[in-house]
Amino acid sequence: MKRIAILFLSLMFIPLIQAEAIAEPIRVDMHYLVVDPMEDGNILVKHMVTYSNIGSEVYKGAGEEGVLTIPLPPGAINLQVQEDGPGVIKSNNSFSTSKPIQPNESQVLSYSYEIPAGVPVVLQPDYSLEAMQILIAEGDGSLKFAHAGIGAPQTMQIDGTSYWLYNVANNEAGKEIKFSYSKDDVQPAAASTEAPQNAHPSKESGQTGSTVTKTSPEFHNPGHIRMWDQSPLKRFDPHILMIVFGVIAIAGMGYYSYFRWKRQLEGKKLGEDRYESEFRQLLARQNAIMDRIAELGENHSHGKIGAGEYQAKLAAYKDHLITVKQNLRQFVE
What we know:
By secondary structure, the chain is α+β, with helices and mostly antiparallel strands. The protein has helices at residues 2-11, 212-215, 222-229, 238-301, 307-332, and strands at residues 19-20, 26-37, 43-53, 68-71, 77-81, 88-90, 94-97, 106-115, 121-123, 129-137, 142-145, 154-158, 161-171, 177-182. The chain has two domains: 2-182, Immunoglobulin-like; 251-332.
């Protein structure tokens, strides 16, 4: 599980085409799927999907089943959803979330399930999908798709592990994505990342051309790459730049959290000091009243004050003492 968590965190820095959901204002920012073969022959399928509310109102769902309803493929067993998920409600062939999505906020769903050996994985997303990233570690087998929009897989290094990456593009809502797992590690021929000779500028003919759409991997949008190539930041590697921005954001949040914790600790310490000071003052006041009562008794016994004055002062001291003891009892309780 630690390996998968690191994998998903790494995938967050990869530029991905955004897919639009059917039910506005919900949009699917990214959908990653990792296939992991198990020792008993089953395969473990792990998803990470980000749903964003781009509207101005709280999204509470389009129906009565829940806020978001995620169907499971036929044959799926042992559904596991992250423990801190947004109010998950499980059923036989799907699960729903019950936590509304605030405006301009997102919910990340991480879940997994097993598919028995020999059973194909059949997905039917309820949203139109421009791109889904499906990965399997190199050496763990291969995937065979019954889908015309699947191109040749690409290789990708994540946290020192090499993965085969399949890209599902332009899938309409409700249209199934079906693939099966094979132990054979024979992948379809990978798409060449080398540009053809006529794609390069020719000195003899004086032609100039762009190789962006010819050499870019299939899981990148050529239009986005063209825009990047024309931007002032084109001399930087976009993946490295995203990682740098992510590190800066994480460092900023850590810096803010540390000083907030420090202020809370100082405030708590100040409150404890004030508490102790008030307690000591009440103890000192109680002792002073007790001394006054003892002194009053001595003066009365020696005839320095009359009986009427003695009783009046004694009653006043006792009332004051009762008030102080009640305040002390609040500290003790």
